[in-house]
Request: fold
Amino acid sequence: MRIHYDVHTKGDGKSFLDYYGMNAFDEDLSKEYTSIIKTTPVGLGGGAYQFVIDFFTNHTLKDYCEIIMGYFLEKTIDATLDRLILKPLISAYKKLRALTDDSGMYARKEVLDIWRISIELKDTIVFIYSIYPQSIIENKDKILIQLAKSYKNLIVEGEIPSSITIPALYDEQNFGKGKPVYRAPLEIGEMIDTSDVKTYFKYWGLNYQYSHKTGVYDVEEERLVLGEYDFFVG
Reply:
């Protein structure tokens, strides 16, 4: 697992404001995962202190979805499965958010959020983006269950999508080669209203590496459309 986030530098230009409790967070993760946490010092612009988390596992999409369904439907209790479903990560993250320090020496906790989680499997990568504050934490399990229910509908002539982006937003202001555009949410300057949790369960964006196709999956209608839209990963 890899976690990356930007941080604001202090006035001396040599050090930066980090979160109170990051050492404990790192220790908690290291008990469950092989992990690395990286920070990049930036100016005072927006987008800092938003975690980008990349999780890697040696499972196929089919195997992973079967694990998800078994885990949630049978309520399996297993430490290995807990790690695959990212339960220890979420627990450590919530613990980090609960820690506070009012000395002014640390970054403000209210800006702590997860901007994106990617789950990289043997045959695909799944991107889950934030659509409002703490949306990934609140909806991760529901999204994974929906993925497990839908993944067979995403296969085109035997080909697994090389990437799955959740959600895909319909951008009415842009057209690619005359086609409607669906894209991933923007971290800064997003003009499309994504405050409704249903956004996660409307459209997903798909890329097929071998056939050079892009598609949009309508989750509610259980319908995959190829070629009629331009889809861009954010």
